[in-house]
Write a structure and sequence with these properties.
Layout: H1 2-12, E1 20-23, E2 42-46, E3 55-62, E4 74-77, E5 83-90, E6 94-96, E7 111-113, E8 119-121, E9 128-131, E10 137-143, H2 145-152, H3 156-159, E11 163-165, H4 172-183, H5 187-205, H6 216-229, H7 236-247, H8 251-274, H9 279-286, H10 291-302, H11 306-315, H12 320-325
Antiparallel strand pairs: 1-2, 2-3, 3-10, 4-9, 5-8, 5-10, 6-7, 6-9, 8-11
Helix pairs in contact: 1-4, 4-5, 6-7, 6-8, 8-9, 8-10
Amino acid sequence: MLQRSSAAVLNDCDSPRRLHSRPMASLAPPSPRHPAGLIPSGELWLPRASLTACLRAAMARSTVGYTLSDAQRINRFPASPLCSLSWWFEGRSEALVAERPDTMPTQHSPREAYPGRWVLAGPQTRPTSSYCAGPTHAMMVMFMPDALHQLTGVDPGALTDRMVDAQSLLPPDWVALCEVVQNLPDNAARLQCLEDFLEPRWQACRPAQALQTQRYGDWVAHLAQRAALSATGRSLRQLERRIKRWAGLPLRELRGFGKAEQAFFDTIAADAAQGSVRWADVAAGAGFSDQSHLCRVTRRITGYAPQALYDGIYGDEAFWAYRIWV
């Protein structure tokens, strides 16, 4: 049955189509913002317009052919309301476990193997870190949690702060897709295959008025509106339960992600315009009560204070995922 399903997936992926992609910022010549010591190994892929309410983005990274120190083999990821599906085409990653909840793990921290050949992750309320012992080529596709639920029936709430073997939860045609993607020759072909697989399925189940924007704050506002209009029962408690069922996280926490993302982009804009960042201005512009509030939320989502995060983005290999988001 898996072979028949794989053939059907391949048929979905046959038609050629150019993907929207944006290469990692450090592909530019070395500069004070992109030091020569950072390798040009990552890409951010943006979905075709018909899938923007389903997919947020895909990140691919390869360290094959590069010589890295132990510290440079760490990968830092923020907490996120998104769900993700990950492949490894060469090498493998391990989860790094912090010794204390108030610290970020280092290359010397305990490691745990990720489950399964392909990993499905739910919304993460804490920052995560991984370690690649050798050269690694991997890809992570990030889904809006409500869209993943509509496409697969997977409950984002049951996946919150978890990473599981994708084969244990995904429908058979999705498992067949994972196999096909695993064996395609390059990232462009893999992402095209994924989009061709998703498009007819998403068009069949998408909400009547799906959101066409990518920012968390707009998505959260749209979820709240959908919750208010989609069923009987309009009390605040009922609306919050509906949103948590769709997204896996409570409304208040989702709004926090929206503010944090706004602060992130405001920081980049301020740096580009002025060459420096005034954190009090960033906090006010993103809707935080004050600079201390911004610091608390940034630490909770990334594990770092704003200035330390900023320095890491522009000077530490481990923050490559943040850099390509810039």
